[in-house]
Structure formats: structure tokens, C-alpha cells
Amino acid sequence: MTERTLVLVKPDGVQRQLTGRILARYEERGLKVVGLKLVRVERTLAEEHYAAHREKPFFGGLVEFITSSPLVAIVLQGPNAITVVRAINGATRPHEAAPGTIRGDFALETAQNIVHASDGPEAAETEIALWFDHAELLDYERDVDRWVLAPAE
Questions:
Q1: What 3 state SS string does 1-20 have?
Q2: For 72-122, how does the pLDDT look when each residue is reduced to its tens digit (9 = 90+)?
């Protein structure tokens, strides 16, 4: 099932110059980039993005961190994109993330775990709409898809 999902390369990933290496992992797997931009996050956007955590003690820290420096927002598309991206990213807690995953290779602490990814279809839809205008998402054909995706039946 073709899905879209949001990925944020958080400020730590951008500051550590990992954006290209991270993006390459998704593309090498076969996922299609349909939206991509560098964003300086305003506090209101950060608070809306983390609204589910508003009552938690770490909410303020999340907002401060994500607004501390630019991040890269990405929309990826492909079969089972949500699950595939979360597997590429690795466990939320880097010490639990397998080597070979983004967090397993690049992160040490949960507070600075390099990337965010939507955790399900509803979250993906909500988050994509929060970070991207519809006109910023491009639908296009890729020649490589005949080698990556099974033919439609």
C-alpha cells in the first residue's frame, strides 16, 4: 500500500551535517521524496507538532530543542512508507536502536535522536498538513520505479 510519511531531520542532525547521509538512506531503500525543505521552526508550529506531549514534563524541552536551529522537513512516499521509515530510523531510544539504523549509528541520547517520523497513517496525514502546503508536495514519475516497485495489477 503506497503511503506518505513525514520525516524531520532535527536540529542535531542538521548541525552535525548528517542531512545528506540520512536522506540517502531513504532514497537508497527506494522511497520517493515528494516534499523537502529547510525550516526555521516557529514556537507555535513546534507546540502544535508536539501537542500530544503538552502535559508531559519534557514538553518545554522538546519545543526549545526543535526551535533551536533549522531542521529539514521531508515527505517520503512508497509502499508501507511509514513502517519502512521507522525501521530505517531505529528505536526512539538510541541505546535500543540497532546498528545500521539512523539512530543506532548517529545518536546517543533520546533528547537528541536525530530524526522524527510519523508513527501511523493518521499522524502522517496530520503532520504532513502541518509542515507542508498541498502545493509543496509534488507527484511525479521516476524511471527507477520500474526497478523498485512491483507492477500494478
A1: CEEEEEEEECHHHHHCCCHH
A2: 999 999 999 999 999 999 999 999 999 999 999 999 999 999 999 999 999
**Residue-range domains of the chain with CATH:** 2-41+71-140 (3.30.70.141)
Number of Cβ within a 10 Å radius of residue 71: 27
Kindly state the cell numbers that stand for 57: 514534563
Known catalytic residues are 116
Any idea what DSSP says for residue 98? Answer: P
DSSP state of 152: P
CA dihedral 29, 30, 33, 38 (to 10 degrees): 20
**pTM for this predicted structure:** 0.95
Angstrom distance (rounded) from CA 138 to CA 153 = 24
Query: How many residues are present in the chain?
Result: 153
Task: Report, as an integer, the average pLDDT of 42-49.
Answer: 97
